[in-house]
Structure prediction request, 139 residues.
Amino acid sequence: MHETSIAAGIISIVEEAASREGLGNVLEVEVEVGLLSLVDLESLRFALEVMSQGTLLEGAKVIFRVVEPMLRCNKCKAEWSVKREAVEGLDEASRLALHLYPEAVTRLFKCPKCGSMETEVVKGRDIRVSRLRAEEKNS
Prediction:
C-alpha cells in the first residue's frame, strides 16, 4: 500500500510550506493525482486522515484533482491525452505492469497518429500538492 508513503510525503510538503510561509493550521489542501500513478484515492484519503492527526493538516479538507495522462510520440511528435476510461479499463496484469514498470506505458498506448510505441509521458504520472489554504499563524 504505497498510499501511506504518499500521504506521509504530502503531510511533509504541506507542513514545510506552511512553516516557510508562516502559516498555522491548514484548512484545505488540493492534491493533483496523475491517473498513471494508479493511486487508490480512498486509501490515500484514509491514510491522510489517520496520519495527519496531531499535524497542521489535521481536520483539513482534502481535494483530489485527477490529471489525465498526456503522451508524446518520440517519432512524429504528436501529443494526445489518454482518457480515464482507457486507463481504468486496463486489465489487472497491465495495471500491475504499469505500476511496477512505469515505462510499460509505451507498450500499452500507441501513438494514434503513426502507430509508434516510442512514446513518453508528458503529464499524468505525478502526485503534487497544487494549493493549500491555511490560517494565519498566531504570534
Q: What stands out?
A: Strands lie at 23-34, 61-67, 70-73, 79-81, 119-123, 127-136. The chain has two domains: 3-68+124-136, 70-122. The chain is about 35% helix and 30% strand.
